[in-house]
Amino acid sequence: MNFEFSADQMQLKDIARKFLEKEEAVKRARNVLEGEASYDEDLWAQIIEMGFTATAIPEEYGGLGLGYLELCVIAEELGRSLAPTPFSSSVYLATEAILNYGDDSLKQAYLPGFASGEKIGAFAHSESNTSPTEANINCAYSDGSLTGTKIAVVDGDIANTFIVTANNGSGVGLYLVDSSSEGVEITEQSTLDPSRSHASIVFNNSKAIELNSDWSNVQNLLDRAAVLFSFEQLGGAEACMDMAKEYAMGRYAFGRSIASFQAIKHKLADMYIAVELARSNCYYGAWALSTDAPELPTAAATCRVSASQAYHECSKENIQTHGGMGFTWEFDCHLYYRRCRQLAANIGSQAIWKDKLIGSLERANQI
Amino acid sequence: MDFNDTPEEAKFRKEAFEWLKANAELKEGPKDSWRASSEEEGLKEVKIWQKKLHEGGWACLHWPKTYGGRESTPIERVIWGQEVSKFKVPGGYLEIGQGMAGPVMMMYATEEQKERYLPPMATGEEIWCQLFSEPAAGSDVAGIKTKAELEGDTWTINGQKVWTSGAHFSDYGILVTRSDPSAPKHKGLTFFFVDMKSPGIEVKPIKQISGGANFNEVYFTDVKIPDSQRLGAVGDGWKVSLTTLMNERLAVGDASGPDFQEAFSLARGQDLNGKLAIENDAVREKLADWYCQQSGLKYAKYRNISALSRGETPGPQSSITKIVSGNKLQEIANFGLDMLDSAGILRSDEEGAEQSMYQYGFYGAAGIRIAGGTDEILKNIISEQVLGMPQDMRADKGLPFNEIPTGNK
Q: Helix A262-291 crosses helix A296-322 at what angle (to 10 degrees)?
């Protein structure tokens, strides 16, 4: 059995980790949070330079032609370092939508730009404060143009290419709209995690290209992205566990390190358990994504639920372990707490993914 | 990343499967398992099966060949376990001897003793038990009080052990005692093996919350043990104990009982308020949580097996198995009974009935969360040995054992 990343993949992970540490990605996340910029352009340029955006794009479309396992290890490190860039929107969602549902001419036109970072994508899906369904999506497509409003579009004010869900009268599928199209109006939205930019987008008879997709493909796109987002969540969760431990070891109260109190030790053990379960489930997701396994819907929902739970557990208990200092603006705990919520929100809620998990098991009748 | 065997592993798997196919009956389904009509009957069948295993070269895979083992690699043990689980074969009774007493004998007994005791342990002719826990020493197992006094070449043992599995049918036991109560807790212990037929040993079953009796109390009254049966130096008993405790944690794995599959198929067939239970959102949410836990443990195990396959020592992931699966079992058992509404309180002893499976889990999970290290002790182990956090402060540190405060429980 070889249920592990290869030595080369682990080396890539190590390179990504060291690069993001050297570039002080966490500090850059704070700068974006506190400043006016929507993302860190310099870090984004370096990520492109490293070839990360080109990882899973085939060579014929200007990519590196590596696989999804490589993308998974990069995602984990981006999550661990809170890297404030549009990577996830552009790579896990927009690139994947074009790669899987675009025709060859669209791929030729767009993918080299996504590989080189000239194109930045965002996924415009939500329309209201309820989960998007085929029945409640009001964005409408007809005769090459798209009309409607999307909200909480992650990287919406950064992207130049939108992948939009819309109804063409017979069902909901994926459409591509350039931000430069007429009738596109982008408004930045304030969020709980300002280290990642969000926007609402109004499309008013904007020129749109139909991707070869229906509602099941929208779900497939979300499943594929869920695996990669799970790795980001896993990286973030582990970072919180490490922070909590390091702080507890050095913090003294009642004449001893607080890391020697069972209340703290058991808290850390609970974090460790959550992280180990999530990591193991993420590997399952990585395997399913990289091999195009029929189990992908189950595996994706499993790792998504598990990694969301682990990040929630670790980011909130990291603050708790830090005590009062964890509640200050000065300490980094809140950056992770915010990012945990942001990542939990961006491709659908826990309740929805749990329901999808059970639904996929019912359909697969694997049991 | 794949789930495939290496060519060597595939060859070993084939060899194991073919031997098993020639010597045992394949299970008809996942729920089809060996069950004995009584403990005596089970013991008899286990001994016959173990003899067959031994003759075929499949006994005590990890042991040296000299003592009846196979000298298999850890990955081969895993593969054997996977293959054997496809067959309806007897099990139980022998694990404590082969998994805990055997390794300790190999490390500390004389060559002559190893030649005398290990082969019958491997063939299943002689059964061993482990005499560690005491009424006042559970999680704090180094706090045992059973007294050992040396006169000439003979030790005299007085005291009481508890939670001893299989003491009533064991031939021998490994025993930890206190030989110097004036030394600090961990320093005054001495380790022996003892003939369970020795005069002065009395075994009494413990009635558990389930009503069953899988464990015993073992009383020692002036039991004589020759000094030649001491394992390790006088006062070194804690060090010797650690060898077996490590093996115990490896041995106590996944909690057995209803798991996600059972709860899922129950929910798909069970009426709940006029609809199928599976259509209830609260039910779906719980099921999803259990699926994620089960899946996480399964793939953590695969990661461990992969490490073994590469010849590496597995990571500490296995330390979470018992905590997660014990708690999951307790929740699933509660869910299974809750699905029956008010009737879930009614007892069913019908063999194999769904209700009795959840009842068994209801009782069993409460025990699993304690056996072989409580959840709390395991969390200490994770935080100390995996995460490197400091030990808790100990009120008894450095005190002579006989000056350590004791409570009234």
A: 160
